[in-house]
Amino acid sequence: MNKKNIAVMVFxxxxxxxxxxxxxxxxxxxxxxxxxxxxxxxxxxxxLLLAIGxxxxxMLIDSFLTFLFIRQHYPQFTLxxxxxxxxxxxxxxxxxxxxxxxxxxxxxxxAKKNVEVGFxxxxxxxxxxxxxxxxxxxxxxxxxxxxxxxxxxxKIPLLWLCVVVGFTAQVVVTSGxxxxxxxxxxxxxxxxxxxxxxxxLSFIKNPEQKIxxxxxxxxxxxxxxxxLLKNPRLLGISCVLIFIQILGIFLVPYxxxxxxxxxxxxxxxxxxxxxxxxxxxxxxxxxxxxGASELAFSVFFELFFGKRFLKSGLLLWRTITYYGVIxxxxxxxxxxxxxxx
Length: 341
Prior knowledge:
Blueprint: H1 3-28, H2 33-37, H3 45-71, H4 79-95, H5 102-112, H6 117-153, H7 157-182, H8 184-200, H9 207-229, H10 232-259, H11 267-281, H12 292-333
Helix pairs in contact: 3-4, 3-6, 3-10, 4-5, 4-12, 5-6, 6-7, 6-9, 6-10, 6-11, 7-11, 8-9, 10-11, 10-12, 11-12
């Protein structure tokens, strides 16, 4: 076993141990889930089902969007294929650092459905750009309308530093993808650099052929991006559905909050809090931002749940939005188990 495999095993072991330890802690510690369930407090099942429905609904919206994008040029692509692709992406995003494995494995599945890599890459990138733009706008609105409240109540400089860095990275990444997606000159410049790099690597066979293949895929990539701008109906539908998708993600904590029969805060404050949690944990290169997500949730949502319900609320939130997603989507990951090299 080489050093790389050993490092991967150690990393995965660390993540698993951390995740299990956190689950056990939030179950058995003081004011944990077990203590809450043994008390006279009963969960409102309807609100809990709404929380689960929000999470599944966001995944189905993503499935439908994948179906709409791919269906433009591949009529044989079905809604069932869109669901499979989306759930494969959700699983690998959850189990890989910084969600880095989601889109590549979706491309593998789409390639098995005879969808060109350049086209499928552009479709995934288009969805990503729209998602990032709308998510960034929601974050900006959250900062504008509720910054005084959160700045006065959350006084942890390191956490706010994570929020600022995460927000900045979100803006930079989105801007960079937009420029690369629609700037042919920049793409050609990057291909030229890549050509020089390949020529210097003597172990690469047929570098010119690889560059030619890459150029063809980039050409298809830009054509697909231009076609999106020429299809305002698809662009408009995508923006509306992704906005609903993001709201669904941000509404899960509110539904959990209401499941404890709590109602002393507004849905707007809860959405703003979840927006900050997402930004603060986005820069942590661990699967599911393990540890950072729990910490950010604890700080921002203790304002609403209080110490009595915080740990139980956090555990339910992570179970619905992370652990439950892994369990639900794992069977779909098997569709890529026999992928070509």
